[in-house]
Design a protein that fits this description.
The complex is a heterotrimer of chains A (about 325), B (about 425) and C (about 290). Chain A has a single domain, classed as ABC transporter involved in vitamin B12 uptake, BtuC, CATH 1.10.3470. Chain A is built from 14 helices and no strands. Chain A has helices at about 1-25, 30-40, 45-80, 90-105, 110-130, 140-160, 165-175, 185-205, 205-210, 215-220, 225-250, 255-265, 270-295, 305-324. In chain A, helix 4 runs antiparallel to helix 7. The longest helix of chain A has about 35 residues, at about 45-80. Chain C has helices spanning about 1-15, 50-55, 90-95, 105-115, 130-145, 150-170, 195-205, 220-230, 240-245, 255, 265-270, 275-285; strands spanning about 20-25, 30-35, 40-45, 60-65, 100, 120, 175-180, 190, 205-210, 230-235, 260. In chain C, strands 7, 8, 9, 10 and 11 form a 5-stranded mixed beta sheet that branches. Chain C starts with a helix and ends in a 7-residue tail after the last helix. Classes of the chains: A mainly alpha (about 325), B alpha/beta (about 425), C alpha/beta (about 290). The interface of A and C includes residues 26, 27, 46, 166 and 174 of A.
């Protein structure tokens, strides 16, 4: 069965990448020591701090963020019947960046930044939904979302301009580059909770999402409320994306490529596609982040650069195949 | 399960399409909704399906107002096959058809064994059982249509609506589909289909609804609705209505367009029979009030006249022309501007017709079409031929079949008689 | 004999440990407690911290630095933990430091979460805006690593130098100066306003900042610069050519008079600040320093 094969392969690769993520890093710990610190943590030992305090939460965050973005991307692709949609298509990234930039510019405390980012993300999507409601169907929603994304990007640019030459400028830029090292403890918990709930809900709504492929009328003829359904799904996807972005900045291509790839491999049935995309997204981001950490030690490349480096050529390849 | 529309008014922002429609659809009946573009066929179907809420009036499913029923409940009883169904992703046929079970499933829509069984059955009904695992994009046009039909059938509806289902199919698939939906109607479903092809509709439907500009122009059996007059009023085209001898169903054949003025230029008597007059009738009937004589009901010229709504002086089959018929013909001749004699076969039975014409009208008001053929087709031992020669010598005019269509030769008749 | 040595040893160690645990105040106004003399210090911020440790004779305490071009040569060969604006948490932790200097923002938060002692000085966020911040940094870091005496001495030397210099310049009329950064010829420059270390330098070196009505590092148009017509322009050494090569600025007094000089930004906030100040004063008032 092809499906079992794909899931099995993903699980295997995922396990392998997880092992690598725990073994590799600028801290240069031999494998035996990593294992020792993992199972017998000694508070205060730098090895334990590295394994439990840094690598493990980072690996878990990487997997969760990748899964969340892939799920959100898969939903967006299904909703808009476009395999090239991304989780950021409704202006989420722009809104989150503007929210975070605003909070940083106002000099608020560090815990305020994820809140600002999340608020910005929801504001952007909410605005898009409200502005697009007189139009029927999804095309209006996409267009408004794109326009708002551009608007919020301009706002972020404006904030950057006014804070230029300031530490805040650096902080804002830094935030937009994204990083999985920022989350620990309760933040990972929130990520896990949101991703888990999101994944569960989306799996339950899988067949309805399939039905949306029939178009507005087709779905209505099967007894669904297309607009309500769209609103719900956009809400769940935005929750996933906003949480991921709020904690870790905007990381591109994961949410676009993994659902698309899984659809090519496993078909468009969302009840299979979304779990596979979540798994694949988690593994992909974890692998990218591990690479970002070990490529040029002690430099840690922003993970968005690595996903882009791999994502873009692959994406172009997919586009060329399709256009043929 | 009955579907009833009461004073239904429906349309789109700024544009009311249906302007008050009251109809009833019964189980066991295949109803075809026909009409020109913009008449409201698709709008009607969408109003019945619930996709388009009415601005006024109501749709009742088994006595319950459609607007008051939750969409899921409606979807359990009513399925619609759209004109151009879209499928945003490349599902397999099975995955697509499984969606048809959605209305019957409580959240979270897991398929039971019964549901899977329904899917298998439905695929067999449309003949796609071997293609269940194929991806949609790999199917042919007809197979894609059948897949969507299977999706509709998987809802196990009591009402089946189809919007132009034959529009993009080849003739083989078209007939297959029509036979299929007819069979469904016979099994007890309410089947309503919007269709452009009038003959296809007439061939398979029990009832026709003719729409024009958002109103019902006529409803009834195909023979009742497809008359040349109604067709002209609805579509602005000229048609001849025939009955197929083998199936008993009516069908249309198109005629060249009438010139803008529909006022007749005068009355003419056409002498014909045996098929010689059909073309002449077709060419002249737009301009003139015609009477055909004398033929029997088995004659193809009789059928052509019926098709064109031309009056006929009839005689019993296999009998010679009776004095009664001759008297009737004479009355028409006296009231006409002239007579056109088709290159028909004359025998002892109908020679009297030609003699009557020669007697009743001055020669310059008699037109002969291909008189050489009349001589060839003379079964009267030469009498008919001699009569023709005499008429020609006295001034009867000859027209070629081609000249019939142009107005000049008969123009001087329009001011006389009638 | 052996007993005497032991006693001397204990006394020395005791002397060294005197004053510990030390409490200092960081940039956030929070009290940071340093329980024992640090033996393994990592610089996770700007190069200034490395400079201070070198100047205080405490370079052997350093086990790791950020990779900055402004690092003093003495720290060459030490493990690097990444760039100052984004150091690697793991690299820092792997060095098992007992004191981390200069980290800010989320990096600092995470390090503190992991139980490390982090000290950053200056304005909130770790920004250093002038000579008082530098002196404060020297003193605070000095106390934190148990070199309080050396720190006070260094601060004293720097202050003396500056006071002497300012005395020399007292009676001289201020020279009109613009301190700016211009990334390409004819591009609108980022100029220095009040609240910056460069501004303070200008004032103390006997100059007048033509952009004293602005604050921070705003970007202005070329016209504005031409309008204000400074007598001297200071910029980064690499950008001197950009200023001289600007067509638009050909009429400005500083350009006409050839008085465009380069001073590296990294030296403006450093322990070398007194030398930089002297350098600047000599450029602005050559007549006061002629032999």
């Amino acid at each position: 069965m092809k499906r079992a094969g794909v899931f099995g392969l993903l699980g295997l690769v995922g396990a392998g990448v997880l092992v690598l993520a725990l073994l590799l890093g600028p801290g240069r710990l031999p494998a035996g020591e990593v294992w020792r610190h993992l199972v017998h943590p000694q508070p205060g030992a730098s090895g334990t701090t590295i394994v439990h305090g840094l690598r493990l939460p980072r690996a878990v965050s990487g997997f969760l963020v990748g899964a969340a973005l892939a799920l959100a991307g898969g939903v967006m692709q299904g909703l808009f019947r476009n395999p090239l949609a991304s989780p950021y298509v409704l202006g989420v990234a722009g809104g989150a960046a503007a929210g975070a930039a605003g909070v940083i510019a106002l000099g608020a405390a560090a815990w305020g930044i994820p809140l600002g980012a999340a608020a910005g993300a929801f504001l952007a999507v909410g605005l898009a939904w409200w502005l697009a409601s007189p139009t029927r169907g999804e095309l209006g929603l996409i267009l408004v979302g794109v326009a708002l994304g551009a608007l919020f990007s301009s706002i972020t640019g404006l904030i950057l301009f006014f804070t230029a030459g300031d530490r805040r400028f650096q902080e804002i830029l830094f935030w937009t580059m994204g990083g999985l090292w920022r989350t620990s403890g309760w933040e990972v918990g929130v990520l896990a909770g949101v991703t888990g709930v999101g994944a569960g809900l989306l799996w339950l709504w899988g067949r309805r999402l399939n039905a949306l492929a029939l178009g507005e009328e087709g779905a209505r003829h099967l007894g669904l409320h297309p607009r309500r359904l769209r609103g719900f799904l956009v809400g769940v996807a935005t929750l996933l994306t906003a949480t991921a972005v709020a904690f870790c900045g905007t990381i591109g291509f994961v949410g676009l490529i993994t659902p698309h790839l899984m659809r090519l491999l496993l078909g468009p049935d969302h009840r299979v596609l979304l779990p596979a995309a979540a798994l694949a997204g988690g593994v992909f981001l974890l692998a990218a982040d591990t690479l970002a950490r070990i490529a040029l030690p002690p430099l840690e490349l922003p993970v968005g650069i690595v996903t882009g480096l791999f994502g873009v050529p692959f994406f172009l390849y997919l586009v060329r195949r399709r256009v043929r | 399960m009955k579907v009833r529309l009461v004073e239904l008014v429906a349309g789109y922002p700024g544009r009311e399409v249906l302007a008050g429609v009251s109809l009833e659809f019964r189980p066991g009946e295949l109803t075809a909704v026909v009409g020109p573009n913009g008449a409201g066929k698709t709008t009607l179907l969408r109003a019945i399906s619930g996709a388009l809420p009415p601005s006024a009036g109501a749709v009742y499913l088994d006595g319950k107002d459609l607007a008051s029923l939750p969409p899921k409940q409606v979807a359990r009883r009513l399925a619609m096959l759209e004109q151009r169904p879209q499928l945003g992703f490349d599902f397999t046929v099975r995955e697509l058809v499984e969606l048809g079970r959605l209305p019957h499933l409580p959240f979270p829509e897991r398929l039971s064994r019964v549901d899977r069984q329904v899917v298998v059955e439905v695929l067999a009904e449309v003949g796609l059982e071997g293609l269940a695992e194929r991806r949609f994009s790999t199917l042919s046009g007809g197979e894609k249509q059948r897949a969507f039909l299977a999706l509709a059938l998987a809802q196990r509806p009591q009402v089946l609506l189809l919007d132009e289902p034959t529009a993009h199919l080849d003739i083989g698939y078209q007939l297959e589909l029509m036979q299929f939906v007819r069979a469904r109607a016979e099994k007890g479903l309410v089947v309503v289909l919007a269709i452009h092809d009038l003959n296809l509709a007439a061939a398979f439907a029990d009832r026709l609804v003719l729409l024009r500009e958002g109103r019902v122009l006529a409803t009834g059996s195909p023979a009742q609705v497809l008359t040349p007059d109604l067709v002209r009023r609805a579509f602005g085209v000229e048609a001849a209505v025939y009955r197929c001898p083998t199936t008993g169903r009516v069908y249309l054949h198109w005629l060249p367009r009438r010139p803008p003025t529909s006022k007749k230029e005068g009355r003419l008597v056409v002498v014909g029979g045996g098929g010689a007059a059909a073309e002449i009738l077709a060419a002249l009937s737009p301009r003139f009030q015609l009477v055909l004589g004398v033929v029997c009901p088995l004659d193809s010229d009789y059928q052509a006249a019926q098709a064109l709504g031309v009056e006929v002086v009839v005689e019993a089959p296999f009998a010679p022309v009776s004095p009664r018929a001759l008297r009737e013909l004479e009355r028409h001749l006296k009231a006409s501007a002239g007579a056109v004699v088709a290159p028909t076969w004359f025998g002892p039975g109908n020679l009297a017709v030609l003699e009557l014409v020669a007697e009743a009208l001055p020669p310059e008001r008699i037109f002969l079409i291909s008189p050489e053929l009349i001589r060839e087709r003379d079964f009267t031992g030469g009498t008919a031929g001699q009569l023709v020669e005499r008429l020609l010598a006295q001034g009867a005019r000859v027209l070629t079949p081609g000249e019939l269509s142009s107005s000049a030769p008969l123009g001087d008749l329009s001011s006389q008689g009638g | 004999m052996r007993a005497a040595i032991s006693v001397a040893l204990v006394l020395t160690l005791g002397l060294l440990a005197v004053g510990f645990p030390v409490t200092v105040v960081d940039d956030r106004g929070r009290e940071i407690v340093i329980p024992a003399p640090p033996q393994r210090v990592v610089v996770a911020g700007v190069a200034l911290y490395a400079q201070i440790l070198v100047d205080l004779g405490a370079v052997d305490l350093l086990v790791g630095v950020t990779s900055s071009p402004d690092n003093p040569p003495q720290v060459e060969g030490l493990p690097e933990v990444g760039p100052a604006f984004s150091p690697s948490l793991e690299a820092i932790v792997a060095l098992s430091p007992d004191l981390v200097l200069g980290a800010w923002g989320e990096v600092r938060d995470r390090l503190e979460e992991l139980g490390l002692v982090v000290l950053t000085v200056g304005q909130p966020g770790g920004w250093l805006t002038g000579i008082p911040d530098v002196l404060d940094a020297i003193r605070t870091v000095g106390r934190a690593v148990g070199r309080a005496r050396e720190a006070d001495a260094l601060c004293g030397r720097i202050s003396e130098e500056i006071v002497r210099l300012e005395a020399q310049l007292l009676s001289l009329p201020p020279v009109r100066v613009a301190f700016l950064y211009m990334s390409a010829p004819d591009s609108p420059p980022y100029v220095v306003g009040t609240g910056t270390p460069e501004h303070e330098l200008i004032l103390r070196a006997g100059g007048e900042n033509v952009f004293a009505d602005l604050s921070g590092y705003p970007q202005v148009s070329l016209e504005e610069l031409i309008l204000r017509d400074p007598e001297v322009i200071i910029t980064d050494p690499a950008q001197v050519e950009n200023v001289l090569g600007s067509q638009a600025l050909a009429g400005v007094a500083a350009v006409k008079g050839g008085r465009v000089y380069g001073i590296p930004a990294s030296q403006v906030v450093s322990t070398r600040v007194a030398e930089v100040l002297r350098q600047l004063a000599e450029l602005l008032h050559p007549e006061a320093f002629a032999p």
